Amino acid sequence: MSIIHEKSPKHCAEKQTTKILNKSKKKLLFYSLMFFLSILCLILLLRFILHPSNPHFSLTQVDINHLNITSPSPFLNSSIHLTLLSTNPNKRTGIYYDGFLLHASYNSHVITPDTSIPPFFQDHQQPNLLSASLLGNHHHVDPSLAAGKLPLGFTATGSLRWKVGNWVSRRYGFSVDCVTVLPLGRRDSTPLTSKQPTVCSTSI
Fold first, then answer.
1. What's the CA gap between 125 and 121, in Å, rounded?
2. How far, in Å, CA of 90 to CA of 50, rounded?
């Protein structure tokens, strides 16, 4: 005599409910995974868009209209006019320059006070020529300045904002450093000029 195993309707209902719950869990897991993958892709996309390439700067011309060194203690009085080329290398990102201060230095010693360049906007892949006149009076310099060459550094500091479509980022500080060497030549009224383009380094 064989034993007959018969499942009750209650048992079948419980089994069916378990199957439905398992399917729901799988769907929930799948949708959760897709959601997190979408968020990850969005973060990577935003990181690519919102962290564009740094702007490029180069020193195109430096004119020293006045240069006077006092003795016996060497002090430098100077009048310098420079032209700086700024280029936005990004194809989809504009740049707002909110602050732009520029000064000259010799042997890491600042020889002119900060000169301000007015705020401006730079569109996609747009170049801009920036001009500034730097005046320095009675700044102490190294006696080796009389050796025949004048190595000058130019530093720009300020803040900028990135623009992507209608979105504008928060402000980021930036720094630009340029170096050029001019021959001193005669110490008369003849201006010293350098027209050799010098690539500058930019950090943000």
1. 12
2. 11
How open is the CA angle 77-194-83, to the nearest 5 degrees?
80
pLDDT in tens, 60-74: 999 888 777 666 666
Based on the domain organization, do 70 and 47 belong to the same domain?
Answer: no
Shared-domain flag, residues 98 and 38: no
Tell me the C-alpha distance between 190 and 178, whole Å: 24
pTM above 0.85, yes or no: no
Domain span including residue 12:
8-51
User: Per the structure, how many domains does the chain have?
Assistant: 2
Q: Does a structural domain hold residue 3?
A: no
pLDDT, tens digit (0-9, with 9 covering 90-100), for 189-203 = 566 777 777 889 999
Same domain assignment for residues 43 and 77: no
Closest CA to 111 of 145, 65, 73, 77: 77
Q: Hey, what are 167's tokens?
A: 């979105």
Using CA atoms in the order 167, 172, 177, 178, what is the torsion angle rounded to 10 degrees?
A: 20
